[in-house]
Write a structure and sequence with these properties.
mainly alpha, 0% strand
Length: 103
């Protein structure tokens, strides 16, 4: 008669072997075809209006002001990145000591 200690590993091993054989023997499922295209086609009117339009004087001034502001911000970011201080602690950082268990 089998003992319970031997029966459980034997059953688990048999189930594992059966699962592996089933996985490797079965044929893969056929690929699924989508019902609609993944990327919808652009309408022709969108392609026709892709030409750049002429800006008015006020819009050109606004674009120039925006560009100047962006340049100033980027210049400040360069200076900030270069002026970061080094870490104050050099070398090994001491760890806290173990405390005795309160009684």
């Amino acid at each position: 008669m089998f003992s319970l200690r031997l029966a459980i590993p034997v059953v688990l091993f048999a189930a594992t072997v059966a699962a592996c054989l089933t996985y490797f023997i079965t044929l893969p499922l056929p690929p699924v075809e989508p019902d609609r295209p993944a990327i919808p086609a652009l309408p022709s009117r969108v392609l026709e209006t892709a030409a750049p339009k002429k800006l008015s004087d006020d819009e050109e001034k606004a674009v120039a002001a925006f560009q100047r502001a962006a340049d100033v911000i980027l210049k400040r970011a360069e200076n900030l990145a270069a002026s970061t201080p080094e870490l104050p602690i050099k070398g090994r950082i001491p760890l806290p000591r173990k405390r005795p268990i309160p009684r």
